[in-house]
Amino acid sequence: MIALRPALLLLTLGCFALASFIAHAEQTPAQDDRLKEIIAGDHRSAENRARDQYRNPLETLTFFGIKPDMTVVEIYPGRGWYTEILAPYLKGSGTLYAAEHPGDPSYEAVQRSLEAFDQKVKAAPELYGEVKRTKLTKDGDIAPPGSADLVVTFRNVHSWMGSGTENESFAAMFRALKPGGVLGLVQHRGDPKVPQEPKAGTGYVTEDYVIELAKKAGFELAEKSEINANQKDTKDYPKGVWTLPPSLRLGEEDREKYLAIGESDRMTLKFVKPAS
Asked: Which residue, among 252, 109, 243, has the nearest Cα to 264 in the 3D structure?
């Protein structure tokens, strides 16, 4: 074995790193095209595609740094809106864990959502057959500890606050990630001038409060994005965030007004699990 001088060794390692970076960079356009193709795919319902203007899946997932060979955990997939994109994108080269809600017989909306997701997965094994289903509980694992490259959670923080499980949920996401792994988070953004209600009954949570929760779990804030912002959202509605679409809890009352506002103003945050 040939021994390299320290300077030469550093130069050699630098060349390898540069080559790796260039190769990685060259893959990006093809991966973006694949993601675009899946987002535009016929397997997605017209109803789900109509919400792309508010949820911005291409820009959001790109911001989080998703790649097709990653191990990804999706928290609370609901009826599978994002699963329709993530599962086909990761199929064959990556892994997707769907960390479902633990269930609550007294909460009919959750039970209906769980049933709908179960039916979706079972009805299309060609799309969802490789999805690994787990549950997000107070003390369980959403994926093998230290296995995930990326954890994504969409509009769930207020639910955890409502059930008093926000600290356990952030801890579970931290535990699942590899050192250097990313937590991508989207949440209804509260008015920073309004004190945060501990149970987040309106569905809105201030950005500072979310960042505080993440840091408490050990995360570091890497970057913010305004991809999912909506300046029309005044955040002061009779039924909280559910006054707006897609819920429209007030029914026909001021329906056109709320449709004109669109879906909620949302923070989009990228956190990192420290390498150490």
From this structure: 243
Residue 117 near residue 127, CB atoms below 8 Å? no
Taking only the tens place, the pLDDT of each residue in 39-78 is 999 999 999 999 999 999 999 999 999 999 999 999 999 9
Which strand (E) or helix (H) includes residue 202?
Answer: none
* Number of C-beta neighbours around residue 224 at 10 A: 13
CA dist., res. 128 & res. 123, Å (int): 9
Taking a C-beta distance cutoff of 8 angstroms, is the pair 163, 127 a contact?
no
Q: Which helix (H) or strand (E) holds 99?
A: strand 95-100
Q: How far apart are CA 72 and CA 61, in angstroms?
A: 11
| Distance, CA of 234 to chain centre | 24
Sheet containing 177-188: give its strands across: 132-135, 95-100, 71-75, 148-154, 177-188, 266-272, 220-225
Which helix (H) or strand (E) segment holds residue 102: the answer is none
Task: For the chain, list the domains and their CATH numbers.
Answer: 28-272 (3.40.50.150)
Question: Which runs of E-coded beta strand occur in 136-219?
Answer: 148-154, 177-188
Claim: this prediction has a pTM higher than 0.85:
yes
SS3 128: helix
Evaluate whether 202 touches 225 at the Cβ level (below 8 Å): no
